[in-house]
Amino acid sequence: MGGLNLEVFKFGMYIMFPIGIMYYFGTNLDSRFSVPEFWPKPENANRIPLERDEIEAELQRLRARRLYLREKRLGEQGGQQQPRDQQE
């Protein structure tokens, strides 16, 4: 049977193996597990308007876009549907 030295060795392995694995995988994570250009650059990301004039400009842009899409949708629906008196 094993002696005291074997028990000390096993205890050391039980303690140091998980610590070694955590140290190996826990260091230098940015270069090891990173995907280049995963996050968008700040100039390409959406920016929340904070100033009053920026908010007004953004609201105008959204309003114009909504009206454009509405006109486009109504134009497509109007061209596809026939008037009721012509259907009969």
Automatic annotation (TrEMBL):
Recorded topology in the membrane: Single-pass membrane protein
InterPro entries: Pet100
UniProt keywords, alphabetically: Membrane, Mitochondrion, Transit peptide, Transmembrane, Transmembrane helix
Keyword flag Disulfide bond: no
Regions crossing the membrane: 6-25
Pfam families for this protein: Pet100 (PF09803)
Location of the protein in the cell: Membrane; Mitochondrion membrane
Entry's family note: Belongs to the PET100 family.
Protein name per the record: Mitochondrial cytochrome c oxidase assembly factor
